[in-house]
Write a structure and sequence with these properties.
Bromodomain-like, 0% strand, 139 residues, 71% helix, mainly alpha
């Protein structure tokens, strides 16, 4: 039963997650005027195309596109995890490696641990799990 539900809705939910993440990213930069750092740009580069790819996959019910989505979500999750650890002070930023905006800049901190890279990481990990489970449900 869950397998059928996931097969029918997994791509649509994945598309919705990518859309919310993209709109949230644009809201932070364009409305709240938070300047993105270099790592934020890398995460955006990996997230934004997912809205189009997953939208097409959802409309066409094309589960084969998962092989193109997973590399983007896995790389995005890795960058987000590194970014979160950088903000937590586990790693130190050296020199001007992150450009004019420091990558450990903390524009947003809800409940003491929810930051913009944490939100991006959550989206990437959720997309990775959803895509994997949806793909498995089609087999």
């Amino acid at each position: 039963m869950f397998k059928k539900w996931l097969r029918d809705n997994g791509m649509h939910i994945s598309w919705l997650v990518a859309l919310v993440a993209t709109l949230g990213s644009l809201y932070f930069s364009e409305i709240l005027h938070f300047a993105p750092c270099k790592l934020c740009w890398y995460q955006r580069i990996l997230m934004y195309p997912l809205v189009v790819i997953l939208g097409i996959a959802a409309v066409r019910r094309d589960y084969k596109l998962t092989i193109y989505v997973l590399p983007l979500t896995i790389w995005g999750a890795c960058i987000s995890i590194y970014h979160v650890l950088l903000q937590m002070g586990v790693f130190k930023e050296t020199g001007t490696g992150c450009g004019p905006i420091a990558c450990d800049t903390d524009y947003l901190n809800w409940l003491g641990f929810i930051t913009i890279p944490m939100l991006a990481g959550t989206a990437f990990i959720l997309l990775t799990v959803l895509q994997y489970m949806t793909y498995r449900a089609t087999k």
